[in-house]
Amino acid sequence: MGEVSNRLRTIWSILSWILQSAGSYQIFRKCGEKPLLAFVPFVREYRLAICADREEEGRTYMLITAAMLVTSIPVYVFPADAMTTFFFSIATLALVMVNVVYSIRVYSGLCETFQRSKRWIIPFLFAGGITSLIWGFGKTFVPNRKVISYEELMAPESGAEAKALEGGLTVNIRERSARDFFKKKVLLRDIHLSIPSGHMVLLLGGSGAGKTTFVNAVTGYEKADATILLKEQDIYKQYEKMKYDVGLVPQQELMRGNDTVASTLSDASAIRLPASIPYETKRARIEDVLQDFGLDSISASLVEKLSGGQKKRLSIAMEYICDPSLFILDEPDSGLDGVVARNLFEKLRTIADMGKIVIAITHTPDRVIDLFDDVIVLAKDASRTGRLAYYGPVKEAYTFFGKDSMEQILLSINQTDEGGEGRADEFVAKYAEGKAE
User: Fold this and answer.
1) N or C: which end of the chain has fewer CB within 10 A?
2) CB within 8 A of 291, min separation 6: which ones?
3) Quick one: 299 and 249 in the same domain?
4) Facing residues of 377 across strands?
5) Contact 427, 419 (CB under 8 A)
6) Domain limits for position 128
7) For the chain, how many structural domains are there in total?
8) Do both 35 and 171 map to the same domain?
């Protein structure tokens, strides 16, 4: 008798799954989702939550549904003693209770999307397959919104790739994306620019605009669908060779306080310079860098005894030890007062004038903007994707945005919920149209 009961239960489960998948297929079509995902176990629950505008709940809903299946398998498939069966039955029951709570949240959102009474939640819970068929195939069940893809939200693309620049940096980032719960998230798109040697460039953008992602893509730390050329050499294809030609100074100071300045640079040279370089050449390079950054007089001092400005200079010197052609700095003036910060950027200007490319991020750009040649402005468009809103000379940037300062430019592209003007898409489209022409 028990065997017959289990078979009937299995048949009913399979039939219910088929009915619910078929109904969800039609619901997905109405909501603009990919209908075939209705037949993919667990993914269906997550996508249904997206249709209901309950994505956060959908993630938990999907995981709980998967966990329910895992805990139920030993009870129905593998022979076990009474204690084991009892344990898995209790675990499954607890998950079912939680699943009901999240089901109610998702179905509640679905009722709002289809502008139906919340009383429909009850038939969804007790006869999900039949109810899904009614909603899916019923012509009167029409959603008031559709799932909008990234492509629909994105501002127009320029479609104009930057040409390789002799001796400079050429960046063509077509897309940098990631996967988040079966959903593609585009972090950067359509960023094309060329920076000549000897230029110092400001990288400007609000929180979440993609500045760090851009830097990681350019340096090859996190590869994108892109072509990055430095002195006409492909950084991605020749990474082991080109990594010595790229210097990246992070915001955090990666130094041991109980080391001396000289030993800190010595350790940096062992990491940042090729092993094939003779010891004497390395020692000479260390001495040159100590002198270049005004650290020779304190070379025997402990790092922990240095002032904030001295620590910043040492942090920069650690990356400069390899004499990179491309030098990128993330907020090198963080925590420094105006005078010390100014001196630091004047040193970076000197490095650029030696034929290097310097790209710097700073939260106080206007106090040192006269030292920069160009500015890269990254902005989040409506799809929250990092886009290029402007690249070019600093003076022309003021005209392009109709603003008098970099801080005002930043406010104009920031989203309204961040205290900005929310005009990112306007300027992304304006710049893309200009490049396309």
Assistant:
1) N
2) none
3) yes
4) 204, 390
5) no
6) 2-147
7) 2
8) no
Do 99 and 165 belong together in one domain? no
Q: Give the tokens for residue 412.
A: 């104009």
| Judgement on whether residues 193 and 61 belong to the same structural domain of the protein | no
CA of residue 73 relative to chain centroid, distance: 38
Boundary of a domain, candidates 147, 177, 207:
147
- Is the same domain home to 44 and 181? no
Q: What is the sign, positive or negative, of the torsion defined by CA atoms of 127, 132, 133, 135?
A: positive
Question: Could you tell me which of 382, 405, 381, 401 has the C-alpha nearest to residue 390?
Answer: 401
Cα separation, 151 vs 184, in Å, equals 11
Question: What distance in Å separates the CA atoms of residue 167 and residue 326, rounded to the nearest whole number?
Answer: 11
Calculate the alpha carbon distances from 270 to 250, 263, 277, 286 in Å. Answer: 19, 11, 10, 11
Q: Is 392 exposed, middle or buried (0-12, 13-18, 19+ CB in 10 A)?
A: middle
- One-letter amino acid at 379 equals A
One-character DSSP codes across 248-265: EE-SS----TTSBHHHHH
DSSP string spanning 374-426?
A: EEEEEEE-TTS-EEEEEEEEHHHHHHHHT-SSHHHHHHHHS-GGGTS---HHH
- What lies within 8 Å, CB to CB, of 287 at 6+ separation is 296
At 418 the pLDDT is 80
Residue 70's pLDDT is 75
**Cα-based torsion angle of the residue sequence 384, 388, 389, 394 in order, rounded to the nearest 10 degrees:** 140
Is residue 110 domain-shared with residue 170, that is, in the same domain? no
Q: Does residue 311 contact residue 253 with C-beta atoms inside 8 Å? A: yes
Distances in whole angstroms, Cα of residue 15 to Cα of each of 100, 128, 287, 419: 20, 11, 78, 53
* One domain, residues 90 and 176: no
Assess whether 129 and 184 both reside in one domain: no
10-residue mean pLDDT series, the chain (437 residues): 61 83 94 91 89 90 84 58 64 84 94 95 91 94 80 67 89 88 82 96 92 94 93 91 87 78 86 82 88 85 85 86 90 81 91 95 93 96 90 96 95 87 93 81
List the helix and strand counts (H, then E) for the chain.
Answer: 16, 10
Q: How far apart are CA 359 and CA 352, in angstroms?
A: 9
The Cβ of residue 426 has, within 10 Å, a number of other Cβ atoms equal to 17
Q: Which amino acid is present at 157?
A: E
Q: Which residues contact residue 107 at a Cβ distance below 8 angstroms, ignoring those fewer than 6 apart?
A: 52, 120, 121, 124, 125
